[in-house]
Automatic annotation (TrEMBL):
GO MF annotation list: hydrolase activity
Entry keyword annotation includes Membrane: no
Taxonomy, superkingdom: Bacteria
Keyword terms: Hydrolase
Keyword Hydrolase belongs to the record: yes
SUPFAM superfamilies: Nudix
Residue intervals of the Nudix hydrolase domain: 17-96
Protein name: NUDIX hydrolase
Length: 187
């Protein structure tokens, strides 16, 4: 029988989840948001299933939303979400969904499963919940800078210039031992 503390520990490990999504844009600057039923607006995203990597999950979700041949590009943002009491930590990947040449402003999914709109970035951030809006801002920054933006709870992690560590000697210079060597030679 496991100690009570261990069951809490192991329970917290298995509560961690991974999500993946895509930032899909139009030539006119719109960003795709989805809403299932009367739920909140969200980016095309979902849980990474067992045996699936984040890129494949983002591709699957984008294909279910738009087109069976749809693909995703590079990672724009990675967000580590710290869970609170009763919630596990999670990690979210946002991929570049590319730019569509369309003038469609809104559509519904097959069978009316979801509602979709292409909206300006500023309007998207207002319609998304706090963390998802920050993730979108981080992904757009990553797109603009041509890099991947690291986030923790939707807040960008400050990065410093990467430089190699200073060269270190394994042994001190011989000059430091000269006095010791001279002392030995005299005795």
């Amino acid at each position: 029988m496991a100690a009570p503390g261990l069951s809490g520990y192991y329970g917290s490990i298995f509560k961690r989840s991974t999500t993946a999504g895509a930032v899909i844009r139009t030539v006119g600057g719109g960003i795709l948001l989805l809403r299932y039923g009367t739920g909140p607006w969200q980016l095309p995203a979902g849980v990474v299933k067992a045996g699936e990597d984040p890129r494949t999950a983002a591709r699957r979700i984008a294909r279910e939303t738009l087109d069976p041949g749809f693909d995703v590009g590079r990672v724009l943002a990675v967000d580590y979400l710290q869970g609170g009491p009763g919630r596990g930590d999670s990690i979210a990947f946002l991929f570049d969904g590319g730019t569509l040449a369309t003038t469609v402003a809104a559509f519904t999914g097959a069978g009316g499963g979801f509602e979709a709109r292409f909206l300006p970035a500023a309007e998207c951030r207002q319609m998304l919940d706090g963390v998802t809006g920050k993730q979108l801002a981080g992904a757009l920054l990553g797109l603009e800078l041509g890099t991947t933006v690291e986030l923790v709870d939707g807040v960008q992690v400050p990065t410093e210039a990467v430089c190699p560590p200073p060269l270190r000697r394994m042994m001190p210079p011989l000059e430091d031992f000269s006095a010791v060597l001279e002392h030995r030679e005299r005795t």
